[in-house]
Design a protein that fits this description.
The chain contains 16 helices and 13 strands. The chain has 451 residues and is of the alpha/beta class. The protein folds into 3 domains: 193 residues, Glycogen Phosphorylase B (Rossmann fold), CATH 3.40.50.2000; 36 residues; 182 residues, 3-Layer(aba) Sandwich (Rossmann fold), CATH 3.40.50.2000.
């Protein structure tokens, strides 16, 4: 491997989310890093030793043959606030008494949280990573020819680091936006903060040699953001799935018709009402035996929709689980009869293309998608024939009855995905697309040579 690396080009990959930090952002970087050596590129991951993330994983998941990891320090700008919220401000209790102190502390904590988010966490709450990443990045670049810099967001601090490294070294830079920056569908800032951040966004991204995002509508929006000052290209590289994650797994059945949802629920932008209303009606009328049905949720924020099933007949079939490892996630998807996908409800957000859709493709299970309008999600499902899209009660009732009866008769719901279309979305093919961007950038920029 050492001899092979001598023939490879180097890419410095700036990624905040990398094991032991988990989530879908981590997965995109891991899979790029896994397959880059196959295309003649030596990935060097610049990532914090520790960080803040609600989802964690085994640090060893990032130890991939042929991948070098450069760990950096990290400062959490909210650390003192977290200590304060845990009760370290004892002076208030002494002066005002327990009840008064609790109310004052809550108000002060909320004020500090809002102020930090608005004026200190700029461009985001991971800005405390910047000085540490800069120091280690300069050190690592100084050890030998680095062909290109790659940064992936969120957080946008990663792009700020890449921008600064490019300014210092002249090495070309490719920015990958898994979510848009100021045009993010969940973005909430004051008018002044938004204006300031748009200025920073344009200044930083317009200095990249190429931009990447995960859907064509987002690429068009990104292009419009920097169109007047950006000379590079904007590319679309969607997320994908790794066949290796599913190939060794056989499905296990408990004899129930299992519909599974994996990931975070984004309310009120997604809606489960249609599924539970129709399924409950079918159970009440005896068309579906509630004892033979199981609705599983793996992830966070699911408790926010408990009211949909708590007092209903189908509520007895709902099972809620915490976040699980990616390995276990692949297993529970394969164990399912069907997989639930909730498209974004707002028509203006037709570019939202969730990473879970590609994992669902890898699991080779029928996908039940709730969507009220044409989007990149419905287009992909149509091309792959990997599932069905329903938009009203009549369509939902027809699909659930057809699938349930098929399951009762055969023990499964047959998968009708078009394999040639599905295989276009493997992580290896997505990495091939990334390499094409790298090569194009290097052919037009003064990239250093091979090692």
């Amino acid at each position: 491997m050492r001899e092979n690396r001598l023939l490879m080009k180097k890419v410095l990959m700036i990624a905040y989310y990398y094991p032991p930090l988990g989530g879908v952002g981590t997965l995109r970087t891991i899979k790029f890093a896994k397959y880059l050596p196959k295309f003649g590129w030596h990935p060097i991951i610049l990532t914090p030793e520790t960080g803040v993330c609600s989802i964690t994983c085994d640090k060893g998941e990032g130890d991939i043959d042929g991948v070098e990891i450069v760990r950096t320090g990290y400062f959490d700008i909210f650390s003192f606030l977290r200590r304060f919220q845990k009760g370290e401000a004892s002076v208030a209790r002494e002066n005002f008494g327990a009840l008064e102190s609790k109310g004052l502390k809550r108000k002060l904590s909320a004020f500090l949280q809002k102020s930090l988010n608005e004026w200190v966490a700029f461009p985001d709450s991971r800005i405390g990573w910047y000085p540490y990443a800069m120091r280690r990045g300069i050190e690592r670049i100084g050890r030998g020819d680095m062909s290109i810099i790659f940064s992936t967001s969120a957080p946008e601090t990663a792009h700020l680091i890449a921008y600064s490294l490019k300014q210092r070294t002249g090495i070309p830079w490719v920015a990958d936006l898994r979510d848009l920056w100021t045009q993010h569908h969940g973005y909430q800032r004051t008018r002044l903060r938004l204006r300031l951040e748009k200025v920073l966004e344009k200044k930083v991204l317009s200095n990249a040699n190429a931009l990447i995002t995960v859907s064509d509508p987002w690429a068009r929006r990104l292009r419009s953001t920097v169109s007047k000052v950006f000379n590079g290209n904007v590319f679309t590289i969607t997320n994908g799935f790794d066949p290796d994650d599913f190939s060794q797994r056989t499905s296990r059945s408990n004899g129930k018709f299992i519909i599974t949802y994996v990931g975070t629920l984004y309310l009120p932008n997604q809606d489960l009402t249609l599924l539970f209303k129709v399924l409950n009606q079918l159970c009440e009328k005896g068309h579906v035996d509630v004892r033979k049905v199981e609705i599983r949720f793996y992830g966070s924020k699911v408790e926010a929709v408990n009211h949909l099933w708590k007092k209903s007949l189908v509520g007895k079939s709902v099972k809620i689980f915490d976040n699980v490892s990616h390995e276990e996630c692949a297993a529970v998807q394969k164990d399912s009869t069907a997989l639930l996908l909730l498209d974004w409800q707002q028509p203006e957000e037709k570019g939202v293309l969730p990473a879970k859709l590609f994992e669902y493709l890898g699991a080779r299970r029928p996908i039940l998608c709730i969507s009220t309008h044409k989007t990149v999600v419905t287009d992909l499902l149509k091309r792959t024939n990997a599932g069905v899209v329903v938009k009203n009660e009549e369509e939902m009732r027809a699909v659930l009855l057809r699938w349930y009866r098929e399951f009762i008769e055969t023990g499964e719901v047959k998968y009708h995905g078009i394999e040639s279309e599905i295989m276009k979305h493997t992580r290896e093919n997505k990495t091939r697309q990334l390499v094409e961007v790298f090569e194009k950038v290097c052919s037009h920029a003064a990239c250093p040579g091979r090692e």
